[in-house]
Write a structure and sequence with these properties.
about 500 residues; alpha+beta; 2 domains; nine-stranded mixed beta sheet; three-stranded antiparallel beta sheet; 15 helices; about 45% helix; elongated
Length: about 500
């Protein structure tokens, strides 16, 4: 801690001493202790006293002799020893603040930058500039601090907004994919029936009847069959045999029942409904009787969820299971190709995942997908027949947000290909139009998809091709620790 030699005030640093001197003492001119006249310096004050007040102290007026002269720097009463006091106590300040040039002129040195000024007024103005600059810098620092604080507040606000948006997006995805703990098939079925009653589209007695039927089917784990349409493949076979306009060849899978979504799974159940379609075909094929001896009826959606959980517990696709927290039953969770593969493999049904991970044709199309399906159905089924009803099961087809079942493929006379798809979103009343033998073909628009119609970025298929032994099942279970697919291209 430093002390001002003039007034004795304690100061924190040399810079503080310089500021204090400039503010408190530089502008303070020495005054005559007898008449109060101002002097430019101690030398001038001494000359003034000698010239203006030569009388001995006893000859002066009582009023003046009563007062002892004070030091112009520290205010201490010094009497006749004023000059000696100033020289002894404040001589270094006289040298710092005012130096004699040798020709009678006195110079004044700035205590803040050591600049020498010709007189005290110039020095005062110079020091004022230092003080103003210092105040500006301090003010600038304050403004910079305020700006930094405002920027930090804005950044924190933006970060909170981003975190809130991410939470809302995550909750939206949870709702979209049925992972928001809002209930499953049963809860949605009852809620939608109650809504139908409120809107006058369902009578209360029908509500109670359907509720009883639904609870009974869930208890036994079987589908109620109310969304099923059978016989479509057979009707297509007859139609193509009689139609000969522009179709050169058509290959159809074995018999498949169509299932569409109901009040309980509307908006999220397409994957389960497609599994029901594939299973309906496998149950009609004696090759799969042994591995499906415990599954003779089409299971309900909650039962399919439990079957997938059983596959996870066996060790299939642990990474995929963790995505669902190892739980599907009682939820509205969407499933895809990996869950269908795990379920079929756990039943000892041989299948594979093919990933068409990027477009292979112009305008974002996937001609390689169509060519693969053609090879799947036409291999071992080549010949001159126009209509070929193969022994091949249908194919599960997945893309972002939806899945469908491939039940056949057309080859036009101009060599273009057209897939035939069963869509779980198509209601029974529309599918039943295909059962009419006198159909003019307009209903086929529900099934036909040309190359230009499938333009999602990525498609995955699950294709069934035989039965697995117990050893092969165990090997595939082990391999599914890191589930991979065949990529095309």
């Amino acid at each position: 801690m430093l002390v001002c030699d003039v007034c004795g005030q304690a100061l924190s640093s040399e810079a503080a001493v310089r500021r204090h001197l400039g503010r408190a003492h530089l502008g303070r001119q020495p005054r005559c202790p007898f008449c109060g006249a101002a002097a430019l310096g101690c030398d001038e004050l001494r000359r003034h006293i000698e010239a203006a007040h030569p009388e001995p102290p006893g000859a002066r007026s009582p009023e003046l002799t009563a007062e002892l002269p004070e030091c112009p720097f520290c205010g201490e009463a010094a009497g006749q020893e004023l000059e000696a006091h100033v020289n002894a106590r404040h001589g270094h300040l006289l040298g710092a603040l005012g130096a004699d040039t040798g020709n009678g002129e006195q110079l004044y040195e700035c205590p803040m930058c050591s600049l020498t000024c010709a007189n005290i007024q110039i020095l005062e103005e110079h020091v004022d500039l230092h003080l103003e600059e210092h105040s500006f810098v301090e003010g600038g620092n304050i403004r910079d601090l305020e700006l930094a604080q405002r920027l930090q507040i804005e950044e924190d606000k933006q970060q909170r907004s981003e975190e809130r948006r991410e939470r809302e997006e995550f909750k939206k995805l949870q709702r979209q994919y049925g992972l928001d703990n809002s209930g499953g098939y049963k809860q949605q079925f009852l809620k939608n029936m109650e809504r139908e009653v409120d809107r006058g589209r369902m009578q209360p007695f029908e509500y109670h009847k359907r509720k009883t039927d639904m609870m009974e089917c869930l208890a036994f784990g079987i589908d109620d069959g109310k969304t099923k349409t059978s016989g479509v493949i057979e009707a297509l076979c007859k139609y193509y045999q009689n139609e000969n306009k522009d179709v050169r060849h058509v290959w159809l899978s074995t018999g498949v029942d169509h299932f569409h979504s109901s009040l309980g799974d509307r908006g999220w159940g397409c994957g389960y409904r497609n599994f029901q379609m594939i299973l309906s075909s496998l149950l009609q094929n004696s090759l799969y009787n042994d591995c499906l001896r415990d599954t003779t009826l089409i299971p309900s959606i909650p039962k399919i969820q439990s079957m997938i959980e059983d596959a996870w517990r066996e060790g299939f696709d642990p990474h995929g299971a963790s995505h669902f927290n190892n739980r599907l039953h009682g939820s509205k969770a969407w499933i895809g190709a990996c869950e269908i593969y795990s379920l079929l493999t756990s039943l000892r049904i041989k299948c594979q995942i093919i990933d068409f991970h990027k477009p292979t044709g112009p305008m974002g199309t996937h001609p390689c997908l169509f060519e693969w399906v053609l090879r799947y159905y036409s291999t071992d089924n080549e010949g001159g027949a126009k209509v070929v009803c193969t022994s091949k099961p249908p194919i599960y087809l997945q893309h972002q947000g939806h899945s469908r079942t491939v039940v056949g493929i057309e080859e036009k006379k101009n060599k273009t290909l057209c897939l035939l798809l069963f869509d779980p979103g198509c209601p029974s009343q529309e599918m039943q139009k295909l059962l009419k033998q006198n159909s003019d073909g307009t209903s086929l628009k529900l099934l036909r998809k040309f190359v230009g119609s499938l333009k999602d970025k990525q498609y995955q298929i699950v294709a069934v091709d035989g039965v697995l032994s117990l050893e092969e099942k165990a090997a595939r279970c082990h391999a599914s620790q890191v589930l991979t697919s065949e990529k095309i291209p």
